[in-house]
Predict the 3D structure of the following.
Amino acid sequence: MNTTKQYRDQQEAKQLQSRITSFVKTFKVGTLLHGNGIKKLRGVSPLTLFSVIFSLPFEGINFSQGIVNNPDLDFKKDAAYDFGIESGSDHGN
């Protein structure tokens, strides 16, 4: 990969992350998660999990590549699976 393409890819990744961060803040996703009973039990915050999972399709990465087989994350695949199960439950509503 040439240096120019590598630089462009890095800039696009930074821009994408910035846009996702802006979306999360604008729409108060952390507040929405908390208000719906999705809270940190241990490890990484639900907002971090949401942000990582939410960004996958925009990066062109599937769940397996982005979560299951990604050793660079601050959490393990079980946390992502638990997040999906917990956020999909009824929470007594």
Q: What stands out?
A: The chain has one domain: 3-88.
